[in-house]
Amino acid sequence: MTLNQSARLSVAPMMDWTDRHCRYLHRLMSRRTLLYTEMVTSPALVRGGARHLLRFDRSEHPVALQLGGSDPAELAEAARMGADEGYDEINLNVGCPSDRVQSGTFGAVLMKTPGLVADCARAMAAAVEVPVTVKCRIGVDDQDPATVLPDFLSRMRDAGVRRIAIHARKAWLQGLSPKENRDIPPLDHDLVFRMKERFPDLHLSINGGIESLEQAKGFLDRGIDGVMIGRAAYHAPWDILGTADGEIWGEAPPFSDASQVVVAMLPHIEEHLASGGRLNAVTRHMMGLFAGRPGARAWRRLLSEEAHRDGAGTEVVERALDTVGARMAAE
Ligand SMILES: Cc1cc2nc3c(=O)[nH]c(=O)nc-3n(C[C@H](O)[C@H](O)[C@H](O)COP(=O)(O)O)c2cc1C
């Protein structure tokens, strides 16, 4: 299957959330969904020597590395490092509004300098064989999205970018926290559909506020190429990913319920513990597995009370799973 086909559904890059344990979990549930890393900055990789940030498990394919930065030569070098490490795609972050990131000229503020983003994308594409993609907003601050977004997309196309994920809201760079910037600026999904009509040769993924697989399918049916889901996939991973392979690609999903996913995670957890890691580094991404189902609360409570303790091992997860089983049986 091509990467573009996998990109019909993707899990968005999320700092502190889509780390390698989270991606391992997501990959168990869906063999096809394209997964993204957290953003890794090019200065950290190239100047900081933080190669360990690139670590991932081979089972995670197809997996894209998201980079943050604004220096073409440095981004090209970081892209090369990512491609050497085996990532299937290198993505440039033009959507993240945080202060820390703004100070280094990364993320959404780059919507104001599309020529520079094009230079970055060109330099990255020249450095690697794998696709270079972009994740952007529809605009920032007082920009008019209906004007700046098509200009941005055509510059990306001219720079050789063929796939773009669009978070369908502006970022307001002053006065809103990063979290508020994911909720307060209004969503404009229709604008993304208009862009698809205008740029039929680009693969466009729509992102922002998509809550269910049903809604994602509705968007695909309306003609968008891909749907990227962030928070809903993190908070209710089974609901989004558990049946995605069947619903989106017509293939048999790997598991028929979330309990099986927990059991399949145990070897990964054991390996992590054996290398000196802590249980909650993995289980924190598993909290939402039973979201909306009997036993969800007991599952979360047991994991949050016990998984951070010194020496906590897989028995905590097995006990939590037993509790879910008992609640389900009682329903
Ligand atoms: C905790 C968190 C961290 C995020 N980190 C990144 C990031 O590193 N790079 C990025 O492009 N977007 C980041 N985002 C934005 C998401 O990728 C996504 O665009 C946004 O959450 C909207 O999609 P959703 O409504 O489906 O969550 C982050 C979002 C969250 C909730």
UniProtKB/TrEMBL annotation:
Binding site for FMN: P13, M14, M15, Q66, K135, H167, N207, G208, G209, G230, R231
Keyword rRNA-binding belongs to the record: no
Positions of the catalytic residues: C96
Record keywords, A-Z: Flavoprotein, FMN, NADP, Nucleotide-binding, Oxidoreductase, RNA-binding, tRNA processing, tRNA-binding
Co-factor(s): FMN
EC number(s) reported in the record: 1.3.1.91
Chain segments annotated as coiled-coil in the UniProt record: none
Domain DUS-like FMN-binding: residue ranges: 11-321
Keyword set includes Lipid metabolism: no
Catalyzed reactions: 5,6-dihydrouridine(20a) in tRNA + NAD(+) = uridine(20a) in tRNA + NADH + H(+); 5,6-dihydrouridine(20) in tRNA + NADP(+) = uridine(20) in tRNA + NADPH + H(+); 5,6-dihydrouridine(20) in tRNA + NAD(+) = uridine(20) in tRNA + NADH + H(+); 5,6-dihydrouridine(20a) in tRNA + NADP(+) = uridine(20a) in tRNA + NADPH + H(+)
Site label Interacts with tRNA, positions: N93, K179, R182, R297, R300
HAMAP family: DusA_subfam
PANTHER family: FMN-LINKED OXIDOREDUCTASES SUPERFAMILY PROTEIN (PTHR42907:SF1)
Family: Belongs to the dus family.
Described function: Catalyzes the synthesis of 5,6-dihydrouridine (D), a modified base found in the D-loop of most tRNAs, via the reduction of the C5-C6 double bond in target uridines. Specifically modifies U20 and U20a in tRNAs.
Name this protein carries in UniProt: tRNA-dihydrouridine(20/20a) synthase
Species classification: Bacteria, Pseudomonadati, Pseudomonadota, Alphaproteobacteria, Rhodobacterales
